[in-house]
Amino acid sequence: MVRKLPPLNALKTFEASARLGSFALAAAELNVTPGAVSQQIKKLEDFLGRQLCIRRNNQLLLTDVGRAVHAASSESMDKLAAMTQQLFGGSVRSSLIISVLPSLGVRWLNRHLPDFLSANPDIRVDLRLEEDPVDFFRNRIDVRISYGEHLYPEFETMPFLRDRVTVMCAPSLLSAGRLEPEVPTSLRDEDLIHISWRTGFSSYPTWEAWFEATGGSKHPRRELGHSVDTSSLAVDLARAGSGVVLGQYMLAEDELARGTLLTPFETALVLQYDYCVVHTKTNVRNPIVQAFVTWMSGFRTG
Predict the structure, then answer these.
(1) What is the model's pLDDT at position 247?
(2) Fewest CB within 10 angstroms: 5, 155, 218, 287, which?
(3) Whether the predicted pLDDT of 201 surpasses 60
(4) Given strand 275-279, what is the order of strands in its sheet?
């Protein structure tokens, strides 16, 4: 039986365009002009008799047929690449570009990621620390770890953890008598570490909210304490004994386990949004991305 195959060069061009989300990026990868890419896509659409994609605002949107063709062509290209690598005598390595919020990257993901890499020795990661929002297509991002489901409505999103904050400090502050456990009024404005959250974290709990949750109504004078713009730096200052922070449990899990940070108050506040794993719809069938998503699902709470 004679196989009826689509024009393979056109299929290769479409796969690159769909994967990168851009004719221009596909042209750069294939070392051709964007016009040549457009012609190859048109050739494949004419052969199949279906529209595969729509160009809108410098982004490439796939139709339902386009997503099906991309999934099948991507799988075929991956197999061909693996076969070629094996024939040349090398081991097969797969890359995964992970974009993550800076504090989460340096204080949580970096401590757990070795477990994923140990379970997937053929995967090589490109880890990028970036604030939301990010451009998946321009930066070729495979998966993003973000705060909240609202930032990427057109993408696949899996919430995995909703963190809490509570007062954290170094043991030296307690031994020096600079605060008294379970006595909120013992916290001095000079010892408070404030975090200047960016727009996406506008709902992050403040010291005023924490004091209100304890039944008080203290309004600390921010200028008397320390101010930083990342939660990871705030936790580092607290661990060094420079002050008291409303710290996130997931960012300080190692310090809390070792006792280099203590939680002298029971009152904790829950963040408004979940941390989420985000990827494009075309990556639903990407085995590397899905391996990472499955691994991340092991941290899901609630």
Answers:
(1) 95
(2) 5
(3) no
(4) 123-129, 94-100, 143-147, 275-279, 156-161
Best CA proximity match to 154, nearest among 26, 69, 23, 62: 62
Q: 159 vs 107, 146, 300, CA distance in Å? A: 19, 9, 7
Strands 275-279, 192-195: pairing kind:
unpaired
Where do we find the tokens 């008080």?
216
Question: ∠ CA 32-37-40 to the nearest 5 degrees?
Answer: 120
The answer to whether 194 and 227 are in contact (CB under 8 A) is: yes
Residue 132 structure tokens: 């939301």
User: What are 103-142's pLDDT values in tens digits?
Assistant: 999 999 999 999 999 999 989 999 999 988 898 988 889 9
Burial category of 114 from C-beta neighbours within 10 Å (exposed 0-12, middle 13-18, buried 19 and up)? exposed
44 to each of 68, 69, 71, 147, 261, how far by Cα in Å?
Answer: 14, 10, 15, 39, 60
Geometric angle at alpha carbon 219, from 216 and 225, rounded to 5°: 125
CA atoms within 13 A on the CB side of 295: 18
Does pLDDT of 85 surpass 90?
Answer: no
